[in-house]
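Risk register update: the risk of archive-format incompatibility is retired. Evidence:
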Amino acid sequence: MAVINHHDYTIDSTPVYDDDSGKWKLSASINWPQNGAPRGARFLTSSPELFSRFEDAEQAGLEAAKNWIDGPYSKTG
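Archived output:
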């Protein structure tokens, strides 16, 4: 599990093992505050890409979350 801060968001990347494929899937949550209290969360779990190594799935989760934060979708909530 990796937890980082990116701008005012907290990203938690925790890959999930897929028993059917024997590989790892990315899984990341994005949380952000509003008025000092946790406001919202977004979960990224739908990537079709599978990874042989836990670390690669973990890094992919962080990158996907950062891309979501930096993209237009985070601006709409």
